[in-house]
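Ligand: flavin mononucleotide. Inputs:
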Amino acid sequence: MGDVKRQQAAAVEASIHQPLERLLSLDDVQAEARKRLPKALYEYVASGSDDEQTLWENRQGFKRHLLCPRVGVDVSKVDMSLTLFEDTAHAQHASLPIMISPAGVHCLMHPDGEIATVRAAQREQVVMGVSQHATTCMEDVAKAAVTLPTPSPASSPPPSAPPSTPLWYQLYILRDRSLTLSLVRRAESSGYQALILTVDSPVFGFREADWRNGFAGLPEGMILANYPTKRAYDDRMKGGWDQNSEALLDRSSSFERDLPWLCSVTSLPVVVKGIVAPEDAVAAAEAGCHGIIVSNHGGRQLDSCISSIEALPDIAEALRQKGFLLDADRRAQRPRARLAGSQRACLSPHPFCRHPPVLRSQRPPSFFPPYVLSPHPYSIIPLVVSLFLDSGVRRGTDVLKAMALGATAVLLGKPIFFGLAVGGEEGVRRVVEILRRETEVAMILCGCSDLGKVGRGLVREGGRGSYIRPSRL
Ligand SMILES: Cc1cc2nc3c(=O)[nH]c(=O)nc-3n(C[C@H](O)[C@H](O)[C@H](O)COP(=O)(O)O)c2cc1C
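Predicted complex:
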């Protein structure tokens, strides 16, 4: 009798749930996740702050940009691979210009949580950002990546090998700097290959959905696993979950003080996440970061914030003017220098700093902007920053638009959660697979056989936005 009931339940489930191969777009994956998740969990991930204007604008921003494809070129082969932090000691390979945004609490979506995500990332060879607010500790995530079974046992990596596809660790500046520093040290010793410093969250955005749904804390047995104690973040237990977890964050943190500090205490490249203003991008680059993620946190922080894709061109231009970003021609002329990972521009003396400071006044003359003179043996430090974008990327054409406007790669947030909800590791792989196919088709149709050919001329402003798919009306 029990068996019959189970079979009936399975039949009902099969009739309402679409198999992964029937999910053709990231919107399909989201719709499927909505069917499967309890309302409070779905809305925790899907909703934006306040009126959700920015959540909407992130998608509309892409629709207001249109592609102007080139034809008549050989696109029989398409290469979507790229090298991140190219020409530096931190160079990293990725198969796609698509990465996984650092985002907490993956275990809310699937029991395997971050372990499922990292396995999918490794199999699809995409870089994964691991959040400070993950529900699996960073060491276990890194271990799961390294110990992935490979097709031939002879080629299994040694236990100490770093993951074949890079993992980046995301952190916030905490009131307790020694806790921040200990998290950095753990990331370094677990094999993470970059740090992401999120700067758009001195407090967390107010999502009414969480308060209405009474979503105030993690379910029993689930923790923010990177913190040494639960009390650190869980002491109020009222209102919305994010408000309950923000007590640790340091609202007094500033670029001027904390970014040079972070850059000076680690040999990993530091990528600053959550910038939409050109002035902030320049300030972050001047403070010595290696990369910038143009992001409004997927519409979860400041509502009415400009969409990322519309913020990107001005940021790219401001960085270009200051020599922090090279256009294609100057890139080709740039001397190829590989430098020791610990070489770092350090703009203000700090007690934790391991290097003598390089002062602003010591910046090199403007004819040689990508480098700064170093007090260290190798004599120059690359200051070129890599530009990334997230918030609202849902189509391969979005990936191309972001790259044409200056991004090296894009990151995905909510679609990864929805992939987890519909199929754990396989669901996340399906999300990446869909976007890989769409990006490849978009490149072929735009006459781009490799990512170097995705140039500014490919994109025009002028779409009307407010796009509703006719078939969904
Ligand atoms: C449920 C959820 C949790 C998130 N947690 C973090 C986090 O811990 N740290 C962080 O820097 N960003 C976090 N983000 C933001 C993402 O990294 C990313 O910026 C955003 O989701 C990108 O927009 P998209 O969802 O439209 O792709 C989170 C996003 C979501 C949806």
